[in-house]
Write a structure and sequence with these properties.
This protein is an alpha/beta fold. It is built from one helix and five strands; from the N terminus they run βββββα. Strand 4 and strand 5 (37-38) form a beta hairpin.
């Protein structure tokens, strides 16, 4: 865990391992990630990042299909 600058970390805060806190954290918040984010937002981001290879393949297939139809 790292904390950048003079920040207020509220009472009852939970900070996930490896998190870099870069902004004030309100009371009873849970933050994770680099840069830090509320855990729900961080979890959603990780979920989408895991899907990027699949989405990239889908976009390439659609671009190829569109190119063939124009062609």
């Amino acid at each position: 865990v790292g904390i950048s600058g003079h920040l207020r970390v509220g009472s009852g805060v939970v900070i996930g391992g490896g998190t870099m806190v870069h902004a004030h954290v309100p009371d009873n918040a849970t933050v994770m990630g680099y840069p830090s984010a509320p855990w729900q937002e961080w979890n959603r981001s990780v979920h989408f990042i895991k899907k990027l290879p699949q989405l990239n393949k889908r976009v390439k297939a659609l671009e190829k299909e569109m190119g063939e139809k124009k062609g």
